[in-house]
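Annex B. Sample input.
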Amino acid sequence: MVSPKSEDVAVPVPLSPEDRRTRLLASAAITLGRVSDVLTPLGEIFAAHGHQLYLVGGSVRDAVLGRLGTDLDFTTDARPEIVQQLIRGWADNLWDTGGLAFGTVSASKSGWQLEITTFRSDSYDRVSRNPEVTFGDTLEADLIRRDFTVNAMAVRIGADGALEFADPLDGMSALLAGVLDTPAAPEDSFNDDPLRMLRGARFVSQLGFELAPRVRVAIATMADEIGRITAERVRTELDKLIGGEYPTEGIDIMCETGLAERVLPEVPAMKLEIDEHHQHKDVYEHSLTVLRQAIDQEQGDPDLVLRWAALLHDIGKPPTKRNEPGGGVSFHHHEVVGAKMVRKRMRALKYPKQFTEDVARLVYLHLRFHGYGKGQWTDSAVRRYVTDGAELLPRLHKLVRADCTTRNKRRAAALRATYDDLEVRIERLQEQEDLARVRPDLDGNAIMELLGLEPGPQVGRAWKYLKELRLDRGPMTREEAEAALTQWWRAGGQ
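Annex B, continued. Sample output.
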């Protein structure tokens, strides 16, 4: 077969911005057409009473990108009490979540979550992030107060189901360029609501977009203003960021602009200076790589516990770094220090207690495997690894595997094979005994009966002794457990 000459090979012609715009709008129309059973009757209700209704914000952006979720945001010239009257009886559910004071009515219809907000033209005191709510009369005034132009596009819902795209701030051009820019001057926007700076980093993570240069400069200049935002609001944005499709890019933005220094200082602190005499791996870049590799192992929705543990697993290294004679660097007990740092930071960010403990425990355990060597662990050590990991063991497996970032292919293969061997040993032991619930071979009642004790601390110590014995020896018969406990008790029970 004769290969075609190079001049005969068709070269794809890049689409012009106008062609791309046309295709994206056509795609959005198809996406929104799937919601016509909600949009059409809702548009007819508002039009019949002389009111405008627009789909707006992230709903339009995501429709254009072909990633529309189940939440639909609308804006209208109708006041909130009128909105309630219009959709009562049509909506499946109608409720007030506190948004009514801000002009927002919340409802659900056929599995879709709806928020309908009256046009607003708010002003801010620039001390908190709470606006002085002022209802507006025009779509343009409502859109210009929004955070980014890609979130300031709208689609008018007509009476007959017709969809009319409205983009007075040219958000489509920003979307085509993959750029996050503010409708007004970024300094004014961020002064009004400093949380928008963190939202910028979050959208970088979720959308893969870049910040406009003037936005990046404004964030770097105004990063201290994030201190006006409550810990709960910051935590929500951080979770959305780390749960995004490109979280390492969002984290980079936070570190480069100084936002991370204010809300998550342990992360930029991992950028340790490397000198020519004491070489060590770049802990920050290593941690981002571990995060990416942990994400690669996910199945289904983002696992925030695993992602946070991957990002923070080495935050204990900076405070434990020691330059050793001969040019080496050590980080002794950094997993212990790191787990304490995780608890402190996550408590400051108001994370739930169990979530905090899960992330801290993974950080604490992530180095345990490295004592396994070439399989020298006893069955007792394997039991303790499983018991300490408990319900987090599947995540621990993923974290440990993600923590291998060496470029030495032979070493990487050896580490994978060693961990494979550990998992095989765990499976083998699990077939023989219930490693998921290792308990003493005698319960509290049996302990009290055997030793003649009343409920109290002595029973707890005896229970703990039997638990440790169970981990060391594996399952025992009742007679063996009673004999061991009796011997321990006669020897002083300590």
